[in-house]
Structures are given as structure tokens and as C-alpha cells.
Specification:
Blueprint lengths: L2 H57 L8 H19 L1 H4 L2 H11 L2
């Protein structure tokens, strides 16, 4: 194999590596976008359903504010969903750990 063939093969290998990295990055961005849209739908459902529950409480007994329990429970779940959709991929990121270890070993 000549030198020009070796450099051509090396450039093809580099191009394929870059393409696979771009594809992986696109897949990660797609997953993040789906999580964020799912969170937005969840927050809308949260407000509609809990508004209905508060209305039921208001027009029925108005004694003990029982809607607080689904509001707090569902709110806790929404907090976890928000964290996962907007911040979760950065805290447990393999790329960040790799860079941190790489910088420590310099």
C-alpha cells in the first residue's frame, strides 16, 4: 500500500469517526428534546388536573384542604422530571468525567 493510499484510508476512518460522533450527539439531543417536551406536557397536565381538584374541594366541603396531597406528590415527581430533562445529563455525564480525569492526569 502506498503512502497516498494510507493517508486516504486514514482520512476515511477519521470521517467515519466524526460522522458516528455526530450521529451519537444527534441521538442524545433528540432524547433531551423528547424529555423536555414530555416535561412541558406534564406541567400542563399538573396545572389542569390540580385546578380541577381545588375546584372540587372549593365547591364541596372547604374544610380540610385535601388537594394538597396530590399537589405535593405530583409536584415532587415533576421536580425529578425537570431535573432529568434539563440538568440530569450534565451531572452523570461520561464525557465530563473523562475530561475531568484527563485534566487531573496532566
Amino acid at each position: 500500500m502506498t503512502t497516498s493510499e494510507q493517508s486516504t484510508n486514514a482520512s476515511y476512518a477519521l470521517r467515519d469517526t466524526i460522522a458516528s460522533d455526530d450521529t451519537r450527539r444527534d441521538d442524545m439531543l433528540w432524547q433531551m428534546a423528547k424529555k423536555r417536551v414530555g416535561f412541558k406536557w406534564s406541567i400542563a397536565s399538573y396545572f389542569f388536573v390540580n385546578s380541577f381538584l381545588v375546584a372540587v374541594w372549593f365547591f364541596s366541603s372547604r374544610s380540610y384542604f385535601w388537594p394538597i396531597w396530590p399537589i405535593m406528590g405530583w409536584g415532587l415527581g415533576l421536580a425529578f422530571q425537570y431535573f432529568d430533562a434539563y440538568h440530569g445529563n450534565r451531572i452523570f455525564s461520561a464525557e465530563q468525567e473523562y475530561e475531568k480525569l484527563k485534566n487531573q492526569n496532566k
